[in-house]
């Protein structure tokens, strides 16, 4: 489960991956017969309702940067790869972030759009009522805009506490993703699934190593 953020040029920012490196990584996945999954595929595999391909991978993007549509989507389309965007709707329309028409374009291109809170706060610093508003409103906005269920969550900054987990259960979310390093497996709590955070300072060999290590470990 690979976790990307912004695909662009911003030297020194760990969360902004150069488009050439992103394209090289996607070429590697294609050449080595990885099978990128939709969220639906992922859920059915982890629930043992469908068999897993030999090298499954979930491509996730957090926050909602405009370059996810402008740069990442065309690269993924070359390979026919689906992806998942964990979107913070409060950022919609701000400079550098997606517009709703772009979100709809991603959805139409086969991307799953899921909530990442409204305003990307540090959830454990909020009251349970504030957390609930951040989580449920982000889901409501996405479901209203796209007319599709959005019952999988990713934690802003990878942070959560017992209140967060309680809200996700009460609101009938199916899964939630952390930034704990590794592949998601059926042995993990459904609300504490691992991902490999892709960092700009990692060279290509390091990225390949992380990918293969996690696959072996799980």
UniProtKB/TrEMBL annotation:
Its main location: secreted. Pfam families: Polysacc_deac_1. It is found in: Secreted. It comes from Paenibacillus germinis. The keyword Ion transport does not apply. Transmembrane segments: none annotated. CDD domains: CE4_NodB_like_5s_6s. This is Polysaccharide deacetylase family protein. Coiled coil: none annotated. Keywords: Signal. It comes from the Bacteria. InterPro entries: Glyco_hydro/deAcase_b/a-brl, NODB_dom, Polysacch_Deacetylase. Residues 55-218 form the NodB homology domain.
